[in-house]
Amino acid sequence: MERETQAAAAFQLPHQPATERFWRRFRRNRGAMIGLTIVMFVVLLAVLAPVIAPHDPATQYSGRKLEPPSGEFPLGTDNLSRDLLSRIVYGARPSLGAAFVALILIVSLGTVLGAVSGYAGGWLDEVIMRVVDVLLAFPGLILALAIVGILGQNLSNVILGVVLVSWAGYARLVRGMVLEVRERLFVQAAVSVGVPQWRIVLHHIIPNIISPIIILASLEMGVLILTIAGLNFLGLGIQPPAPEWGAMLNQGRNFFQRAPQLMILPGLMISLTVLGFNLLGDGLRDVLDPHHPNR
To answer: For a 10 Å CB count at each end of the chain, is N or C smaller?
Structure first.
């Protein structure tokens, strides 16, 4: 511990922006604030679904099939006489939840393997990078389809399939950043005074690459939502009668001419959510990237 303190004193870590300054820059970014507002709206929709939804999303009302909007059913009913508004609201839960879980697993796995690969080098780096090359050689969605088809059709397997094909990009990004950071003077100083390798990685390298990881994760969230919704649209994920936006698109496609809202509304929610995360990711890039022209 004393040696690490000496190294840090000799070579001060790069200055990180203060929280107050970060929020001041973030608030000045109009796109970031719009994206944050959209994301918070969708998150609150999912969290407060039991309060917001006027009906149980799985309840069927006899004789109320494909009704237009009314006081009792503000967005009408679907082909199975279920309240469309309630299903849209509850559909935010698996749509967002699955993407969040997948993102956490992807970032964790990619960061750990990328950091180990970049810092350790040698045969371990070769093995990890060859696995990354193999995964990146296949179209991600096709490979995820194959994995889910082998494991079985449920939401857990969809998440697992997406994680297994998506961590490779993060690992390659993290490896490249670790290779750059480990050559800096403060890392070399820590090595020279005998600081344990794991402490160097956790306390010197990871904190200096966390900003790009956060930016990529926020931008990737929209891609994950689209991917998971696409797999659910194909019937590989969540199973009826549970509501999910991608699955609702599939269920409503046969009734598009008679009740287009069955497809339009879930599609709008997916598009709005993806737009929100993309705007938020662009804003974080502007604020956190010291080399960005808008900084």
So the answer is: N
